[in-house]
Design a protein that fits this description.
The chain is mainly α and about 80 residues long. The chain contains three helices and no strands. α2 packs antiparallel against α3. It starts with 10 loop residues before the first helix and ends with a helix. About 5% of the residues are buried.
Length: about 80
């Protein structure tokens, strides 16, 4: 919104923008962990894909926010992967 675009306001709008599939059943614990790893890795890929736009627009605050979020998703995915070994 700060850049002039409205934020999604409904679940349906958010669902259309989602890149992860919703789980319909109740998976085993290890499968849940794998899904969490996949989700954090997907978020990290998305963040990496946004960096060029922030750099092109000389938007340092957004680049800083992306860096902070990327660190969290990378670290969490690493910690979850360690539970699968």
């Amino acid at each position: 919104r700060a850049l002039g675009d409205p934020a999604p306001r409904s679940f349906a709008q958010c669902a259309q923008l989602a890149s992860l599939q919703e789980e319909a059943g109740v998976p085993k614990a290890t499968d849940m962990i794998r899904q969490l790893v996949e989700g954090h890795e997907a978020a990290a890929r998305t963040i990496r894909g946004v960096f060029p736009a922030a750099e092109q627009g000389s938007d340092e605050p957004t680049a800083d926010l992306l860096t902070q979020r990327l660190q969290i998703h990378d670290k969490t995915a690493w910690m979850l992967r360690s539970m699968l070994e």
